[in-house]
Amino acid sequence: MDSPAWTTPLDRISVLEQDRSLLNLMTIIRDQTTSDRDFSSAVEKVVRRLIASALNHVPAEEHTITTPLNATYTGVRFTKGVCGVSILRAGACMEQALRDTWTGPLSFGKLLIQRDEETSIAKIYYSKLPASITKDVVLLLEPMLATGGSVIKAVETLTGNGVPEDSIVLVNVVSSRKGLDVVSGRFPGLKIVSAAVDMELTAQNYISPGLGDFGDRYYGTCA
């Protein structure tokens, strides 16, 4: 599969390897005939891979231990904690995978950000962040990145609360190319981990081919 052409540095944007296992899951997620239950199950499998990749951005140091055979093994141990910040409501679905995957100090924050459907301008309605967040690597949990408005508002909120920009990792299921370029251009220190990148946005600023309304499909609230 050809790699997309970026206008931003590749070392800040990581796209999961497009192997058959992932492509199969993404096919299930994108299919309009997939049931809500099967959609959620496939999403959770993708998110576990995303979280594992995102955790590679947590700093670590070499650490030597002794095995039960009285032999030494030199591995690593993380030197920072992690805070998962969900952009509600869809981002909350990624929290359990982070709980299951991360072994160190862990906290969570919540941001409620809504986009005006006509203007596409994002507005924050609620913010609850732990006091320790400035010391952690922050995984910003947002499944869909379309125009980038909600993510920009979220990053502005985090940095306004003392989180260094280069300590934030956006964890994302599907991004638009435009959204990646906009967000990366605005925040040069931000890191992004995504499972898929779609090249188009519709006139209504929906990702195409996309997967529909993520929250409605995941939580079973489609009309």
Gist of the model:
This is uracil phosphoribosyltransferase. It contains six helices and twelve strands.
Notes on the protein architecture:
By secondary structure, this protein is α/β, with parallel strands linked by helices. The protein has one domain (10-219): Rossmann fold (3-Layer(aba) Sandwich), CATH 3.40.50. It has helices spanning 20-30, 36-54, 95-101, 149-160, 177-186, 214-219, and strands spanning 13-15, 60-66, 72-78, 82-88, 106-115, 122-128, 137-141, 144-145, 168-176, 191-198, 200-201, 207-208. Strands 1, 4, 5, 6, 7, 8, 9 and 10 form an 8-stranded mixed β-sheet that branches. Strands 2-3 form a two-stranded antiparallel ribbon. A two-stranded antiparallel ribbon has the order 11-12. The longest helix has 19 residues, at 36-54. The two termini are 35 Å apart.
